[in-house]
Amino acid sequence: MVSLIHVTRSSRKNVCFVMFVDELTMQTLYSEVQTPDGGFIGLWKIVVVKNLPYDDMRRVGKIPKMLPHRLFPFARYSIWLDSKLRLQRDPLQLLDYFLWRKGHEYAISNHYDRHCLWEEVAQNKKLNKYNHTVIDEQFEFYQADGLKKFNASDPNKLLPSNVPEGSFIVRAHTPMSNLFSCLWFNEVERFTPRDQLSFAYTYQKLRRTNPDKPFYLNMFKDCERRAAAKLFRHISDEKRNVQQKATV
């Protein structure tokens, strides 16, 4: 969501705010939040998706996250925001800060805690985020194709971190940005929907296979992400936490 006090008149006129929900989430909105007014909740146009292409909702969610240029072919820019985040800055100001000032075309923050894929793989398995066998298969494939351990002191490293925090993405819909997004989605579809596992491999492969075509990626610090978008728990999550505390 986005707070109205942070949206300028120019953004209200030029920016489209779109929220994708499935039918179950739509029912939750009706019961817990508010009834959409003419298909809108505040500035947000509500789009109810049906006939979903995957049974795994985590994979379904990667479609609007990674392929906005396919969903909105006439849009020049897009900002992805996870459902638990709320924008704290005007969208046009975010485009200026993360893209326009230094000529970037894709902006995503590094992870708040982990920077090496080896650590991210171990954490995903520890928390049972996905089938361990599939994670191992993906990880072994990437290593065989040249992915190395992240070394923060390496002056030739391609990225400031090999693990992103993908809840907030700002991008220009340029050819290279669109290509990267499609390649990243391909990895999510081929292996696991845990997109942190495939980000660095996708970026390095893109650079390796397109040495003469620059891709202006801005991997910014996580504190900048938290300044731009604040975490808010879902109402159902808050109720669950209250119930758990009450039973302790």
Automatic annotation (TrEMBL):
Please give the InterPro entries that the UniProt record associates with this protein.
TOD1_MUCI70, TOD1_MUCI70_glycTrfase_dom
Q: Which domain of life is it from?
A: Eukaryota
- Report the residue ranges that make up the TOD1/MUCI70 glycosyltransferase-like domain in this protein: 6-234
Tell me the PANTHER family matching this sequence.
ALKALINE CERAMIDASE-RELATED, TRANSMEMBRANE PROTEIN (DUF616)
Protein name, entry field: TOD1/MUCI70 glycosyltransferase-like domain-containing protein
